[in-house]
Amino acid sequence: MSSPASRRLGWFLGGAAAAVAIGRVAANSSPWAAALLIRAVFDRGAARTRAEFERHPPKGPVDELRDIPYGDDPDMRLDVFGPAGVEGPLPTVVWIHGGAWISGSKDDVAPYLRILAAEGFRAIGLDYTVAPEATYPTAVRQLGEALRHVRDHAAELGVDPARLVLAGDSAGAQLASQLAVLMTNPEYAALIGMEPPLGSTQLTGVILHCGVYDLRRMASLTGVAAWGFKSALWAYTGTRNWSSSYQGSTMSTIDFVTSGFPPVYISGGNGDGLTWIESIPMSQALERAGVDTTTRFYAADHEPSLPHEYQFHLDFAEAEEALQDTLAFLHRVTR
């Protein structure tokens, strides 16, 4: 890819210095060392983002249910947030956290979910087993179980099971898009051998921030940032040749969207190389398929340059714009 876009990808890895370090260990015969180093970089970034959220509290009080098990694995836990004192079923957004498939936690997105909950929604954050502790498609199967749990326990969770929106950021956006394809493309469900966890009419919308949807483009990356991406995907897929494998093909959701895909809100920052090679092409594929697609992208020379996961950095006016977009989208697709 072009050198300017490659430089922008450094945002995803926490800076060029981290990318260089990752590159040095990625040549090993195992992805573990690189994955743990990337995880440490991401964990530091997530902690800074959570601290930034403290300057942007929700507009009202929020009730919380934390660490509800949705399966036997200790990683299979979910959090539920809602407007304080509201017990009835509410339209619900279910959020899958990012972290390059090898890091992250529902705790990272909890401050954002509190903001959504204070606006009148039930907001659910999901944990799942990250790589290299577990490889593909473990996370997809676990998240499918989470959605089944939300469906089957809707009444006790205060969820309206007919008004569900699936959302994700970064790697979580890839996972959200994959689950949405699973629920709207029977041929894809047969290809990966999974039963859709929800009926297609229950899923009323999808929110995708800063995601990955075409692994062939990831395989073509060059430069220091490419080491980090390729190491993370090696750890997650369990194969060094992920781009030409079953794993890479079935993760590339850009190839499987159909007109049955629910309405989408998709966004990415102009300082994030993934916007140019992943989010914008995905939005175009959705539009070609006839999907109701709402976008927020910025010109390449927009200032300030908006990094990967810009939507969580509410110190940016543009992140506040994306939040208002998100709320408007949620109200529209769940009314």
Report on this model:
- The structure is a single chain.
- The chain has 14 helices and 8 strands.
- The protein has 335 residues and is of the alpha/beta class.
- An 8-stranded mixed beta sheet has the order 1-2-4-3-5-6-7-8, with helices on both faces.
- Helix 13 links the parallel strand 7 and strand 8.
- Helix 3 packs across helix 11, helix 4 crosses helix 11 and helix 8 crosses helix 9.
- The longest helix has 22 residues.
- The termini are far apart.
Can you summarize the main beta sheet?
Answer: 8 strands, mixed
* Cα separation of the termini: 42 Å
* Broad shape: globular
User: In CATH's first tier, which class applies?
Assistant: Alpha Beta
Name of the CATH architecture = 3-Layer(aba) Sandwich
Beta-strand content = 15-25%
Strand order of the largest sheet: 1-2-4-3-5-6-7-8
Classify the secondary structure makeup into a structural class.
alpha/beta
Which regions have little confidence, pLDDT < 50, spanning 5+ residues? 1-20
The SSE order reads HHHHEEEHEHHEHHEHHHEHEH
Q: What would the CATH topology be?
A: Rossmann fold
Binned, the helix content reads 40-55%
**How many runs of DSSP E, i.e. beta strands?**
8
What is the typical, i.e. mean, pLDDT? 92
